[in-house]
Amino acid sequence: MKSYTAFSVFIFVIFFLLLGAWCSEEADADDLAPMEKTEQEALYSAIQGFVGKWWNGSDLYPDPCGWTPIQGVSCDLFNGLWYVTVLNIGPVHDNSLSFCFISPYKYPVEIPTENWWKLSESLESLEFRSNPSLTGQIPSSFGDLRKLQSLVLVENGLNGWLTSRIGHLVQLKRLVLSGNCFTGPIPDSFGELNQLLIFDLSQNSLSGPLPNTLGSLTSLLKLDLSNNLLEGSISQLGNLKNLTLLDLRSNNFSGGLTKSIQEMHSLEEMALSSNPIGGDLNSIEWQNMDKLVILDLSKTGLTGEIPESISELKRLRFLGLSENKLRGNLTPKLATLPCISALYLHGNNLSGELKFVEPFYSKMGSRFGAWNNPNLCYTSALVTTGHVPFGVKPCQAEVTLLETNSKTRLEDGGLNQNSYFATSLGFSSHSTDGFWWLGGLLQLIMVLWLNWFL
Ligand SMILES: *[C@@H]1O[C@H](CO)[C@@H](O)[C@H](O)[C@H]1NC(C)=O
Ligand SMILES: *[C@@H]1O[C@H](CO)[C@@H](O)[C@H](O)[C@H]1NC(C)=O
Ligand SMILES: *[C@@H]1O[C@H](CO)[C@@H](O)[C@H](O)[C@H]1NC(C)=O
Ligand SMILES: *[C@@H]1O[C@H](CO)[C@@H](O)[C@H](O)[C@H]1NC(C)=O
């Protein structure tokens, strides 16, 4: 951090982070590869759009793909000419690439709308990360960047409706627009992005139903629309047979657990919690979804009983069914799931005897939750006093002496559930990045240091 401060007297500072090595190696090998003047000027003017007209690209970076590389910009050589293939804009953290606004809340900046077409033949990846002062809409001129394979606009202050012209970027494999303030519907045209692997619009204020066209995104591996205001049915998602992650938590989806869900055979993580979906677990043949590792259906208005077929999900590590209207008895088979490490059933109307054995309770600890099921009791013959399930009475209705002891464990349980879950879905986002980096795009890093100048 120290060096940053020292350098901040310069208007524009270059850093070479890890990935910078690539361009310098190239520069040694290939001293001054030519670049088309129009290409070069398009790059300068894109940067100028943020920094201001005073920024003289040809002066500061006469050979941006060669011996004067700009961090965040990387180039590929086609037919002996350099082309800009990656432009990454965001602050420095981890390996991510950077264009850093120092006083983010003071000076709102919008994405320039002009001249993107000049990069339309070459730009493959564009990222703007963690610039809260970057506001306004996504310019519809992004629709000109037809070679784009990755568009990542994460944790900025962007707003307004999503432009339907993003649907023209048919080479996109990754579209991540999470953590902004986008409103309005998901455009129908997004259904044309049939090479998409990763689609993440989470943490915005998008509303309305899912377009039917989403069912055509059959290559999708990860779909994350969590934390929006989306509503209506999710039945069209059944077509997404390669999907491994489906995260729709905290929306307003309804229409029941439609049978089509079970067509998503590849799903490993399905998180639908906090939606008024409703319906009955018995409408799904769970044995068809045997790759599931995480199944979170808490707070989804489920009714009916918990079917035995859930206990065929042998890879299940996390099962969340809490805060629903489930009733009936629990099958002891749930305790035989070989990988289960969190099972939350609290806040339902389950009844009868909990016939799990002590080793199960002791393995799960506070990651087993069954409290707030007034008609449920545990078979005290199967349990010594050290490992009673919190908040569940013994079947003979004696009052236990362990209230206080168990209380602490409940609090741990709440925490554990969250952190467990955050980790597991965090894994998804990291793995998407990992996945992408493996894709072979070479990237460099640009830091624009704008604290006094914007
Ligand atoms: C940028 O710098 C170059 C070389 O120093 C100079 O020739 C050119 O006029 C400058 N351009 C602007 C717009 O100031
Ligand atoms: C789904 O995955 C399989 C195996 O990885 C692959 O062969 C197939 O092409 C994928 N389907 C689509 C529509 O991408
Ligand atoms: C959720 O959707 C229902 C219709 O299914 C609608 O009546 C309700 O207003 C929506 N709630 C919110 C918070 O948008
Ligand atoms: C809970 O289930 C019992 C039967 O076990 C039933 O009598 C009771 O009405 C149910 N309570 C609610 C709130 O549904």
Describe this structure in words.
There is one protein chain. With 454 residues, the chain is α/β, with parallel strands linked by helices. The chain has six helices and 25 strands. A 13-stranded mixed β-sheet has the order 1-2-4-6-8-10-12-14-16-17-19-21-23, with helices on both faces. A five-stranded parallel β-sheet has the order 7-9-11-13-15, with no helix packed on it. A five-stranded parallel β-sheet has the order 18-20-22-24-25, with no helix packed on it. It is elongated. The chain starts with a helix and ends in a 16-residue tail after the last helix. Bound molecules: 2-acetamido-2-deoxy-beta-D-glucopyranose (4 copies). Residues 229, 231, 252, 254 line the site of one 2-acetamido-2-deoxy-beta-D-glucopyranose. Pfam families: LRR_14. Keywords: Glycoprotein, Leucine-rich repeat, Membrane, Repeat, Signal, Transmembrane, Transmembrane helix. It is found in: Membrane. This is Disease resistance R13L4/SHOC-2-like LRR domain-containing protein. The chain crosses the membrane at residues 434-453.
